[in-house]
Amino acid sequence: MGSEDHNKNWVGKPLPRKEENRLLRGRGKFADDIKLRDLLYLRFVRSPYAHAKMVSLDTSAAEALPGVVCALTGAEIALQTQPFIEIGPEPFAKIKDYPMAVSKVRYQGEPVAAVAAESAAIADDAAELVQVEYESLDPVVDAEQALEDKSLLHDEAGTNRVWNGVFEYGDVEKAFKDAAYVVNIDRLHFHRFSSTPLENNVVIAEWDPKDERIYYSCNNSFPSFAIQFLAAHLNVHIDRIRVETSDIGGSFGIKITSYPQMAVCALASKKAGGRPVKWVETRSEHMTSSAHGNERTFRDTQVALDKDGVITAIASRHIDDCGAYPRYEPLGCVIWSQVFPGVYRFKNARIDFIQAVTNKCPVGPNRGYSRMQHLWFLERVVDICAHELGIPSDEMRLRNYIRTEEFPYTTPNGCVYDSGNYPKMLDIAKRLIGWDEWKRKQIEARKQGRLMGIGIGTTLDSGTNNFGQSQIVNPGLPYSGNSQGANCKLDIYGEVVVAVGSCPQGQGHETTAAQVVADVLNIHPDLVTVRTGFDTERNVHTGFSGTYASQFAVSGLSAVHGAAQKLKTEMKQLGAFALRVKEDEIEFGMGAQGPELRAKNNGKCINYWGLANLVNANSAALPPELYDVTLNCRYIWRAPFKVPDKQKKYGNLTLTYASQLHIAVVEVDRETFIPRILDYVAVDDCGTVINPAIVEGQVYGATAHGIGAALMENCVYDAVGNMLTSTFSDYTPITAVNMPIVKYGHIETPSPHSYSGAKGMGEGGAAPIHTISAALQDALFDNGIVIEDSFNNADSLFRALVGKETSQAETLVKVERRV
Amino acid sequence: MAIKFGGEFEVKKTPEEVYDFLTNPQKFAPLLPDFQGMTQQDSTHFTVKVDVGISYIKGTAEVKMQLAEADRPKRAQYKGQGSVAGGNVSLTAGFDLSPVDSGTKVAWQGEATVFGRLTSVAGGLLEPLGKKNVKKLIDGLQAALQ
Lengths: 819, 146
Description:
The structure holds two protein chains of two kinds.
Chain A: H1 20-23, E1 40-46, E2 52-58, H2 60-64, E3 68-73, H3 74-80, E4 104-105, E5 111-117, H4 120-129, E6 131-136, H5 143-146, E7 161-169, H6 172-178, E8 181-190, E9 202-208, E10 213-218, H7 223-234, E11 241-245, H8 259-271, E12 277-280, H9 283-289, E13 295-305, E14 311-321, H10 332-335, E15 348-356, H11 371-389, H12 393-400, E16 409-410, E17 416-417, H13 422-433, H14 435-447, E18 451-465, H15 470-473, E19 483-490, E20 496-500, H16 509-521, E21 528-531, H17 552-579, E22 586-591, E23 594-599, E24 605-607, H18 608-616, E25 632-638, E26 654-668, E27 675-685, H19 692-711, H20 728-731, E28 743-746, H21 767-780, H22 794-801, H23 809-812, E29 813-817
Parallel strand pairs in A: 1-12, 10-11, 14-15, 20-21, 27-28
Antiparallel strand pairs in A: 1-5, 2-4, 2-6, 3-5, 7-15, 8-13, 8-29, 9-10, 9-12, 13-14, 16-17, 18-26, 19-20, 19-25, 22-23, 23-24, 26-27
Helix pairs in contact in A: 7-8, 11-21, 16-17, 19-21
Chain B: E1 2-11, H1 15-22, H2 25-28, E2 35-40, E3 45-54, E4 57-71, E5 75-84, E6 87-100, E7 103-115, H3 118-121, H4 123-145
Antiparallel strand pairs in B: 1-7, 2-3, 3-4, 4-5, 5-6, 6-7
């Protein structure tokens, strides 16, 4: 191997994932694979009611069943714990949230008791024996209805309106006064859906009475957040909680909020004398009571446009439904504003944002969390205005997109979009799908009475949060910035070992981290061992560690890169000593004995084992000036953020902005009303690509998730709060069979905000939901239909087209024309 | 999920006789479809057990009933609450009696609200099943009162 730069090209290669070897052969290690001596199995007893007082609860029959070790109730937990921390200010802060209902249930599926037994089957049987008497209360399943406060969920809060804030920028009044057109949209609605990871939530907890520590093996995807909640709740020092995660079969954000179940398992273990307790969530439990995505209603929207159809202002009222307990909320009340103007240039806006609790499953940060709802809203606004003003949808976007030369672009609320080229993405997408040809086919189809539409969705995937935005929703919170940790070491026998604080669930962290380190040390990625999965004992986590918010490519890999650079520096120091040359004469490469350091001029070399040996096992040979060299380098990467202005709600909230542009051709069958995708294109820009194969896989995954959400997946509740889609038969998650062939394209606009130019990606900005809504509207607009809901299936389209029950443009949209 | 039902029929008994029948759990309860047994706590409270089966979900429902309104011989109303595998049910059933030439007109109305996973697993079957069982009950009542 020659120069140090010879092999510096692993980043950017479609390297097969290192993880595949074990995962595809069934050799992954998941939480449920862990078997422990004396393990107990926990089963929850859950409320059938959405809203009810608990009149009585009797666990005696369950406890009497042979094999049952203990039972727990919410009332019992309340006596020995603190309520979970509430992120929001009052009235949020008044809510008393325990992991099981204490005296009142607030959503169907809420745990009211738990049973721990020698086997899962016994625990199941015992749970059936728990007697609970309820007194039904009026349920509130609609956020707007909840705001009337006729039936309160949390009496102590005194209202169901748990957060309210106005985000106003520019001169909204003037923009409306000067507008050539004002488009009024009465109501839009983003539906409630969730994620269906292959692996449900799993927790194993052991409250060891010998050292008074709690040991967790689980698949929570944001453990550093969970342990902060658990420590305060369980009254234990945070250092007494150990959390380990291993392979995780998908999370999509939903597993972030499994800390209540983690608490119950720990308390059950404590009650059982320290025996480990395992809880494996069933699919029905996951559907009814893990977490759903936020549902949002957009009311009284007004859009000001100039004579060319350029949007100059938007005013609207947004009502977010966070379900029964605001566990990760009210962060969603500000996170949407990371993408305040979407991909558009308007400078004046006023959004009155309200969050309400309802008798439905608590929400969690589902993929595209809080931003996708807002981006869908903006895309709806753009398409509705385009149709009303008779401007083609592609032309409408080109008139309104942030221009390429404007990057880095500061949004009205102070976010800095790092880079992008939306017109180019549109051009590529149109070319890939054959835009002109489909337009021609559409004209022909319409002549035949067919309902065919072509829709565009342009969206953003903002990655690497500035946690200072939490202070916008609660000025008292002690969070700001973002950081991630990594450790890179040369082990005793010279192995390169990297540890990260992330919890990959299919994102390929093991591979991409190895690519980064391989480039730094000029070795093959196979020579880099990456310890993925969170482990508090590795000491590489910060308060932000986990896997969420499209950030590993930036935050995680920046930490890995930093740690590798530190290691490299130490290796150079040591190599220079060992080879008796200056540090700048050292080069890294491969030799006959594996990876080595070599003196450029004299050909002397030392392999990694020799180098590691000097520090770890032959240290008497080390001069004192090298005593600080450990070859065990921890690096904490910190994002260059400032605390936002809390009053003005102004500041940079996210570091990178990946973008996605999708186009769909959709046809609604005239007889069955089933919408069918005829063609689909996804174009992605996540800056410099670390591993193209992984990025492409993420794009397909996010596209599938979005298409499922747009056409198939909906958390439907009836009027009394029964979730009617709690099984896969009813929820109908998308499968490969339902997926169209996706044509994939990408561009790279490197981010100036990350060391590598990469941007976080993977959430996908819910592009398919925007795109399919747009395509359906294009198909149906001539029939007087405006797509007002993010979920559209044959039933809703039938009701709109035939029943005239929903989506009628004449009642939803009014246009004031002043030119 | 709420299932509403109602209707009316005429029998040849007097309103007092009909009222006494309807408010006597020992006579009334066995007419419930798939009745298994009953325990009476007092004159207005009783618990009935009925077999319930929807597709693969089979079990015994235990329903606590209360005679909530008793206005002899004009009106009687029951309220009940019970549980079955996968769900709970709250129900009301009222009978308004009025004399007619040939006897008594019984106007009946009720509502059953079902809670729990049952509504998801068997939601589509619940309403027809409920209505079928209500019809059985009313047919039984009519037959017993003729």
